[in-house]
Amino acid sequence: MCELLGMSANVPTDICFSFTGLMQRGGKTGPHRDGWGIAFYEGRGCRTFHDPHPSAESEIALLVQRYAIKSLIVISHIRRANRGRICLENTHPFSRELWGRHWVFAHNGQLRGVKRLPLGYYRPIGTTDSEHAFCWLLGRIRDRFPRPPRRPTGLWRCIHELTLELSRLGVFNYLLSDACHLYAHCSTHLSWLTRRAPFGQARLMDADMTVDFQAETTPNDIVTVVATRPLTANEAWTVMRPGALAIFDAGEQVAEFGA
Questions:
Q1: Rounded distance, CA 183 to CA 145, Å?
Q2: Is the peptide bond before 93 cis (omega within 30 degrees of 0)?
Q3: What CATH number does residue 204 fall under?
Q4: Within a domain: residue 112?
Q5: Angle between the 16-24 and 59-66 helix axes, to the nearest 10 degrees?
Q6: What pLDDT score does 130 carry?
Q7: Which of 18, 76, 103, 218 has the fewest CB atoms nearer than 10 Å to its CB?
């Protein structure tokens, strides 16, 4: 199975600390050796890095760790292949355009028979069940909302309904962003943590690294990190219930849908 990492923040924030912990699981402290990727939203743009090589050994991953890219929303993924060969086109996260926005998606799990679902406007480039599911999901959203809805709640309900359909096919842990919100769906394993004042120290489980966030932040900063498994050993993570869809905006959870 793969592992996911996401971030939602109210001010542009780098994810170097959490990303460093996740990357160790890509071939060092974990078996996820089949590629990795990360997407950073910057204004209307989206900066992405992909590498089909193990993240713990990747020079590109080292670049991202050292280059503090600041973003409001980040989605990252390390892969342990089960469907689709190990290659660049099968490396998450995947992205497509809708309503003039970059949509980004990363998935952990297997969806049996998903490729029997008919596709419309969006087509996969690679051969994973994950990308097919993303194309189907985004196509259905496009059909339902040819233009962006005035209020986000209708879109949230639509995403939840489509998520339930895909969840019937297997394990469907995912992170999704429409450039405005971060969506996190738990099928089996997903946890999140919100950091806000008063900030303290955090210690990674997978690397010998500790950060004092009080020295790195302002009292108004709010940052939520979402991960398949908790990344730090000394913080209280919220373990999501299977079937839950959580939606984050500017570091705050703004909605949650149950199974």
A1: 18
A2: yes
A3: 3.60.20.10
A4: no
A5: 160
A6: 95
A7: 218
CA–CA dist 221, 241 (Å, integer): 27
129 found inside a domain: no
The token duo for 12 is: 């542009």
State the Cα–Cα distance between residues 75 and 176, nearest whole angstrom. Answer: 8
Mean pLDDT of the 199-223 span: 78
d(CA 242, CA 142): 27
Residue 24 lies in a domain: yes
Separation CA 188–CA 173 (nearest Å): 7
Structure tokens at 92: 């998450």
> Does the model's pTM come out above 0.70?
yes
* Chain centre distance of CA 90: 16
- Could you tell me if residue 151 is inside a domain? no
Sign of the C-alpha dihedral computed for residues 250, 194, 225 and 145 taken in this order = negative
Sign of the Cα pseudo-torsion (70, 72, 77, 78, in order): positive
Residues 37 and 95: beta-carbon distance below 8 Å: no
Here the tokens at position 31 are: 């078996």
Which one from 2, 46, 135, 186 is the annotated catalytic residue? 2
Domain that holds residue 44: 3-107+174-257
Helix (H) or strand (E) holding 102: strand 101-108
**Alpha-helix runs per DSSP H in 95-151:** 129-144
- The number of distinct structural domains making up the chain is 1
The whole-angstrom separation of Cα 37 and Cα 92 is 6
Report the distance separating Cα 121 and Cα 258, nearest Å. 29
**What does residue 213 show for φ and ψ, rounded to 5 degrees?**
-70, -20
**186 belongs to the catalytic site:** no
- What pLDDT, on a 0 to 100 scale, did the predictor assign at position 33? 61
Indicate the residue type of 176. L
* Each residue's pLDDT tens digit, 44-83: 899 999 988 876 677 787 788 788 889 999 999 887 656 6
